[in-house]
Structures are given as C-alpha cells and as structure tokens.
Design brief:
There is one protein chain. By secondary structure, the protein is α/β, with parallel strands linked by helices. The protein has one domain: Rossmann fold, CATH 3.40.50. The chain is 28% helix and 27% strand. The chain is globular. The structure holds inosinic acid and magnesium ion. The site of inosinic acid has 17 residues, from strand 5, helix 4 and strand 8.
C-alpha cells in the first residue's frame, strides 16, 4: 500500500505550482521587500506552521538586515474550512514597539487570520506593519483585510504542500498541489 504522499505525487496533474514557479515568485517578493525596506531593519514574523518553508526561503533571499520571530495561531484544526475561532498558541518574543514588522503568511482564505493578526500586533505598537502571503484565494474572504505583498492568486480549491497541510500531512512537499477528491476520501475512510 503506497503512502498518502506517494498517492499524491504520482499524478502530475495534481500540481498547481512547481518548485520553479515558487522559487521565481519568492525571489521576486524578496527583491521587492529588500528594495522597500532599504536602510531599515524590519522584524519578519513567521506564522506557524503553514508558512515555515515559504518564510525560510523568503528570508534567505533578502539583502537587507532583518530579524526573525515566530507566532503560532490555530483556527482550522483538521477541517478544510476555518472554524472562525482563532487561538494564539505562541506569542512573539521580540519587542515590536517602534519596529517595522512584516507578517508572513502561507495562504489567505477567509481573511480571518490576517484580520486577527493585524489587530493583535497593532496593540504592540510597531512603527509599521505589512502582510506578506505566498497565496491568496480569490472570492473566499468573509472579512475585509489588507495584504501588501501577494504571491499567487489562486482559486477556491484546498491546496497542500510547501508548508500547507491536510491533517498535518504534506507540509514537506516542495511543490503545491490541489487536494484530490480521491485522496480526501482515502484519508477519511
Ligand atoms: P484564513 O484565516 O481563513 O484566511 O486562513 C488562513 C489559514 O488557514 C492559513 O494560514 C492556512 O494555515 C489555512 N488554510 C487556508 N486555506 C488552506 C488550504 O487551501 N490548504 C491548507 N491550509 C489552508
Ligand atoms: Mg497558516
């Protein structure tokens, strides 16, 4: 019996974004951020767990001085849709008062996480705050949100790989895949 990961990668048609497409996009986003923050030392905040691969690839491409920090919030559990309720599981360690802050997300779907993070981080009095997201789903927002640096705009489909999970699996894959129905069924048998 092959693993769920093998079942997913065996069919190339499931790939939404290749390694090369992701690399190119990450390099372009890092170049833009390096240009916009020239002369500043921003704090980049990784929103765990989903953005861990995007974050590490992005910061490696930056040419400015920068600091990194990590937060963890939860909202999905094992479901395909946001529960709407967000918990802070790990707070920032670095004082953000007077700092230029960039919050790095993997994907924006309902917009609830970004909306929540913006209000929460604002209370820490940063000098400025911007959001970066590799993926933005189109037509799925249920709240207004702002995201200044956007990678790819994608459809409504549930995606996995490159940090994104379904039931905690597939985060390790270097490509981004659309979750196939058959795999969803197999994992919920
Ligand atoms: P939002 O709060 O609904 O915008 O969702 C944000 C979070 O939900 C993201 O940071 C992801 O962790 C997760 N998420 C949203 N859509 C997907 C998806 O298609 N695949 C995997 N995780 C997702
Ligand atoms: Mg996430």
């Amino acid at each position: 019996m092959s693993s769920f990961t093998e079942q997913l990668v065996s069919e190339h048609k499931n790939v939404l974004l290749t390694r090369e497409q992701i690399n190119q996009k990450v390099r372009a986003m890092a170049a833009q951020i390096s240009q916009d923050y020239k002369g500043e030392v921003p704090v980049l905040i990784c929103v765990l767990n989903g953005s861990f691969l995007f974050f590490t690839d992005l910061v490696r491409e930056l040419t400015i001085d920068c600091e990194v920090d990590f937060v963890k919030i939860s909202s999905y559990g094992d479901a395909l849709k946001s529960s709407g309720k967000i918990d802070v599981l790990k707070n920032v360690d670095c004082p953000l008062e007077g700092r230029h802050v960039l919050i790095v997300e993997d994907i924006i779907d309902t917009g609830l996480s970004v909306h929540f993070l913006r209000r929460w981080i604002k209370k820490l009095n940063p000098a400025s705050m911007r959001f970066v997201s590799l993926l933005v789903k189109e037509g799925t927002a249920i709240v207004d949100y702002e995201c200044e640096y956007r990678g790819f705009t994608i459809g409504k489909e549930f995606v996995i790989g490159y940090g994104l999970d379904y039931k905690q699996l597939f985060r390790n894959l270097p490509e981004i895949y659309i979750m196939p129905e058959a795999l969803l069924d197999a994992m919920n048998k």
